[in-house]
Amino acid sequence: MSEQRDGTAIGSFPRARADAGWMNDLRRERTAGPRTPHQQSLEAPAGNSTTAVHGGTYLDPTTRAVGTPIFQTSTFLLDETSYDAFHEGVTRDVPIYTRYGNPSQWSVQEKLALLEGAESALVTSSGMAAISTTVLALTNPGGHVITAYDVYGGTYNLMREDLHALGRDVSFVDAADPAAVAAAIRPETQMLFVEGLTNPLLKAPPLAELAALARQHDILLVVDNTFLSPACLRPIDLGAHLVVHSATKYLNGHSDLTAGVVAGPRKFVDRVWAQAMRLGGTLEPFSCFLLERGLKTLPLRMRAHHENASGIAAFLAGHPAIGRVHHPSLPDYPYPHLRESARGYGGVVSFEVAGGDAAALRVLQALRLPRVATSLGGVESLVSMPFNTSHSSLTQAQRTAVGIRPGLIRYSAGIEELADLVDDLDAALALLDEDPAPEATTDSPDDEARDGRQEETPCATA
Amino acid sequence: MRNGMNIAGVSEMVHEVQTQPHEAICRYGAVARWSEGRGIRAHNEPAVLGTVKSPRRYDLTVAPEQGPTRDDAPTAVRLALTALAACALTTFVGGGSARGVTLESLRLGVGAERVREGGRDRLTNLSYDLAVRADTGGVDIAEVVAGMETQSPNHRTVIDRQPLTLVLGDGAPEQAPEPAAPPAGSGEKVAAAVDWQYSVQFLATADDASAPLRVDQPKQLAGVDWGPNPQEYLLTALASCVLGRTVALSEAAGRPAGPWRFRAGGQVDIRGLFLIGPDPVVPVHRLVLEVTPPDGAPDGWQDLVREAVRTSPVAGLLMDDHLVKIDLDAAAVGHD
Lengths: 462, 336
Ligand SMILES: Cc1ncc(COP(=O)(O)O)c(C=O)c1O
Known about the structure:
The complex is a heterodimer. By secondary structure, chain A is α/β, with parallel strands linked by helices. Chain A is globular, with a radius of gyration of 23 Å. In chain A, helix 1 runs antiparallel to helix 3 and helix 13 packs across helix 15. Chain A contains 16 helices and 12 strands. Chain A folds into 2 domains: 276 residues, 3-Layer(aba) Sandwich (Aspartate Aminotransferase, domain 2), CATH 3.40.640; 153 residues, Alpha-Beta Complex (Aspartate Aminotransferase, domain 1), CATH 3.90.1150.10. Chain B is α+β, with helices and mostly antiparallel strands. Chain B is 30% helix and 33% strand. Chain B has 8 helices and 15 strands. In chain B, strands 1, 2, 3, 4, 5, 8, 9, 13 and 14 form a 9-stranded mixed sheet that branches. A 6-stranded mixed sheet of chain B has the order 12-11-10-6-7-15. Classes of the chains: A alpha/beta, B alpha+beta. The interface between A and B is large, with 35 and 38 residues. Pyridoxal-5'-phosphate binds next to helix 4 and helix 5 of chain A.
């Protein structure tokens, strides 16, 4: 059996050296990818939906399958191309070993990079793998990271429990306040890590402003875009250097996969890749297939999520049993700049049941359609309460300080019929009238809640 | 990978700075402080490499040029010689690797004569002993050495003249005084040696009792953060040397020495190292020394600092031009 492969077809890469006389004669430049010539290229800029369907797809020349095959292998036959790749140090661009790279990863990575407007992307075994690997790869011992005190709990714990042990110092600030971010900058600050839309209160930091600040101080801006996805917001267009995701959420969209992604210039993503090779958070081929398949419907799903969450927000905003509703579509939403940069707000809507946590728990029990589960971004609606899940490690006072008040429910709207979701909510809330809740909310005004927020509030577990 | 260097990575950097010249500018800084009892402590400042920052958290104790050494601390002169040798070797490894030379071992001993007289203190008669063991792949090692001589930033700083700007307290930036002419006659021999380990990592030793020093580039510049880089050692040497002399002059003048702070800054355009562009700037340039005197420093402290610069062996090494005699001992290994 022939062990020769078409070296120009797979893993072809520009050589670094052309009889170099000195370093200036080295010829390799960074290119988008990695990719194989069998991947569908979108020459003209395509719309999001077109990119989601076609971008990066591997068109198998042998079988002419219309979808990317699953390259379910951990290793690849070695040949001259592989040996050259080792020698030149370009092992990211040649299939050698799946922890280094695999065409299943490359296909989905290219789709993700195209969707985010990035040069390159890397898929990882979870959102946390993407985040931890990115932060470690792009900072050094002695460096300083600025993040938000209300970042996702897993990220918070990484920043608070691990980074200092690895020689990085971290400041926790209100990322929606550029003055607070600016005040935290030090000479050794290397990274500003924020979420495009926060959990569960949907705060939106002014990304363009933060990007300008970061660039002025030679700081990398990394945006966790999990809650919006590139179908709604492209942080790189606003000046962010890199984007990370829990692809477990909207990107995959079916609550059946754990994965992560980092996207950005190849200069930085290559370094994250090298770090990922060492730390080991690779995404295996079958998961790549699932993620690629999920991504094909991302824009379609995001429209449905957005419409459902906005519809639910509008319904709840006028409901007597409901206190505050957090959603960007509502007139009192405190971060209106998001409306200019985003093409939708995703599927999350958070709201306070007027009767407090006990009443909210009764609503959860009464709901028929959304499943009570943590996570978000799947086609099915999910509900959960921060007080007994993501933010359970906080005291009541700490929760109030970060704006999580009694009775808060996080509703991740799926893609079901809006009318069904609203009817279901309506019926569940009506039950509260029959048996009024004993507990009352503490109704602190907005300013009070904000003043009470402290730097370094111990935040949530995952 | 060749010699532990990611050739493709270096190649991509070469291409990047060709198309985005601002990414080629690397700014470094070192701060030296003196205090009663602790003597001179120096640390590096965060480096800005193009548009990326690297914190560079390294500090060390610097031994006084005269009198008892502090434990195994290096002197500023030793730091300067280490910086010179390590930069030359970094350049050699980069150029040699690009040309296909596979190294087995590489060592550069740098020697000088230190002549002191009447307050003047100068390094003269500089020489390199370069020992190369390599599979040359047919490349003439002398050509790589020639590339090292023209493209090594620290080496060029020493062989060419470089201006130094002084910022004394709140004063306006001023040109540092010309270094005092070297005294005639011969002096004490000083030496340091640097051994290549892997990629751009080096271990520097000296024939005094001081501990070995690690040299490496930031991970943003193909290193692994193993130690300060050659430019950082050079700036540490400059700040520490002038600081040490200022303290000595101050004490000699019967003025109490307080907690002085000297910051040395400089930048490298890596297009010089890479040999990109019609006339790339190779040496470390925009050399600046910013001095913060102790509270209540006596009137005229500025003159003490100027005199310290004028007579500092490290400032003289950087500001004046020098000849460096190079002895090459190259032996082929492998299948040439
Ligand atoms: C905003 C955000 N970032 C990151 C993560 C972590 O992702 P994963 O669970 O895929 O590791 C999550 C998970 O909930 C999240 O909500």
